[in-house]
Amino acid sequence: MVNAAPGGRVNPGRPSARRSARRPAALAAPPRPAVLASSLAFTLLSWAFVSAALWPVYRAVPFVVLAVVAIAAGTAIAAAGALLRWPAWGGILASVAVLTIIGVPLAVPERTVYGILPEPAGLLELTSGIVLGWRQLLTIDLPVGSYQALLVPALVLLYVGSLLTASIALRTRRPALAGAVPGLGFLLAVALGRDDRAVPLVTAVALVVVLMLWVAVLRRHRRTDSLRAGGADNPLDARGAVVRSFASATALLLVAGGAGVAAGVTASPSTDRVVLRSIVERPFDPRELPSPLAAFRAAFDPPRASEIALRVSGAPEGSRVRIATLDSYDGVVFAVGSAEVSAASGSFVRIATEREVESPGERAAIEIEVVEGTGSWLPTVGEFRGVRFAGDDAADLRDRVRLNATTGTAALIGGTEAGTTYVLDAVVPEEPGVRLAESSPGATAVPGIAAASDELRAWLDGVTAGVDGAGPGLAAALEAIREQGYVSHGVDPAQPASRSGHSLDRIGELLTRRPMVGDAEQYSVLAALIARELGFPSRIVLGYGPIAGAQESLRSDDLTAWIEVDVAGEGWVPVDVMPPEREIPPAEPQEPVPVSRPQNAVQPPAEVPPVADEQSPPEIEPGERPEQDDLLTLLLTIARFVGIVLAVAALIAAPFVGVVAAKARRRRRRRRAADPTTRILGGWREVTDAAADHGLEIPVGATRREVARIIGQPQAGVLARVADRVDYAPEPPQAGEADRVWTAVDAVRAALVAGRRRRERWRAALSVRSLRRYPGRSRTERGRRAP
């Protein structure tokens, strides 16, 4: 005969329960059909939403096929293990075997025979992708499509995640823990995504709804199992379990949402959200390279100037070839990115086979042949979509390409050597016809630059006198450069000398000498500084163009530089700043510097300095600000968020802590009462309170002995007789009897707890039934009262 605890539950302290607890998991009974169906449906739905969160990372049809097959395979293996009662090692072997079979066709389809059978090289890439694919996925531009073996991380996440979810739901004693697996998978999918896209809230809400449904259905299964086991639970409770589960889950969701809103309001980030790819170390840092603008003058050396540098075919007429984009200036050289701040223009990442381009324009396949090496920079045209190299080392060259989508600049690790040929898949937008005189500055963030010199400000004030507005001022300044400037590269003896370089000293010399002589190196820097001074975000582009025809051979001396300014409503607009080539007039004589004779020194009258009432504050330069520590800022933001979450959690937990504290205080007061009779009656009250909190119904007006029979513990009957005797007998209790009563009270309370699930123990500890007015005891009841 099976020994059962109160409520129809098997007491694990009995021999039969101990034998059941020691039964191996492999021999456990298979799940009921309803449990199996609900668990599999929960697994499939939850991981479908996780795969939807992964979609922005790949955006390719092969990923959809992979997600369907991987989730279905993982769920099927878990179901087979539960139905056939496989041991743990059997399930592991089966899952590894299936992953080996489906892994290469799904994640590395290029390494298969007939698209199905895996090659040895494919198995090697699959194995290495499981370990290294995560890092590679974080150092490549998104979306990656089916490029190389980058689908392996998605395969591992979806396959192993669905397998663990279904296995926990079907084969463990705590199936509710299965909901944590897709939750963690969703967080990982978001962390692998882009840092410039919002969190997929719709997908997150859908996943939360699925988890709520799982909690409700799981509770219904537990109720059904309890009733089938012959428990005493009320069928009405079973029918209302779903409603109560939804109510509690909804309340929890509202509290969590409130905490998230409060944290977002208090610690709202001013930049894009941080994901894993935001903090991973990039393999290519352009700030370690010399500025390409510093070598501009070398392209015009006489032996090299007439040589072909690039051959371009297929480019739309009027397009430009971009070599590098420079947006930071330290007063000496213009460079890519900045070593002082974290600039988006300095972040170069790997790219997949093809990347998305949202800009409108003409799509073109442009063939470029690099005749003269361009260093680490890869010439591009328009918006970069993809690239295909020619030659036996095409795959190796393709893997070495890095792109900065902010500036449209591409780089090739190891350098772009002469003879490199490739076809560029690009979208070439039409240059906007913007009138600078009618424009206003945009709001794009760019790295800071060195302050403009006094010579530049004085010259700018002179050419913009009487002009109001940033746009008209920029148009007037650029027109003045074209009128006053003359072009000389300083390499032709017949031309006036023109010093190379673009430091503030060289720009000051350009503005103060007459005539104004320089080349694209100086004029582009001057125009970029003027635009910044007037409030326009600006940057310098080094390249060739505009291209006159579909096929063109560009010479070395065709290299030029122009600026791009951010115009409100239009974005980055290219602006040519070079003056027309014309004959340079002779240099004007320098104005003599007036020299004044020294005057006789006259002693000034003595002045008594005023007495300072208080110490003056230390002098601080207006531009000096303490450097902001990114790590400290991140830690403070995390600490603030954790503090808010802890405060909300403390607010939520306060009622429950209050209930436990009130019960502990009541128990201590009863146990430490000075009168032995009061202590004994208080012990009986403690027993009846514990019985009420554990769900036992105590009828109104029941005697102590009747209550003891309801409790069902032998010691409860002894306590009832002792309480009756001390309550109604004239003689006082014996010495030490109160201590023995409380020892029995502790034993009865322990017996009530034994054999119950942890959830039921928590429910009893937090129950407020015993804190209400005692049932069955009227205010005119005879006998002594316990506290």
TrEMBL record:
One matching Pfam family: Transglut_core
Keyword Membrane belongs to the record: yes
SMART domains: TGc (SM00460)
Matching InterPro entries: Bact_TGase-like, Papain-like_cys_pep_sf, TgpA_N, Transglutaminase-like
Annotated spans, Disordered: 1-25, 576-625
Segments forming domain Transglutaminase-like: 512-579
Membrane-spanning intervals of the chain: 34-56, 63-83, 89-108, 120-138, 150-169, 176-192, 198-218, 246-267, 641-662
Source domain of life: Bacteria
Sequence ranges of Low complexity compositional bias: 598-615
Keywords assigned: Membrane, Transmembrane, Transmembrane helix
Protein name: Transglutaminase-like domain-containing protein
Annotated source species: Microcella alkalica
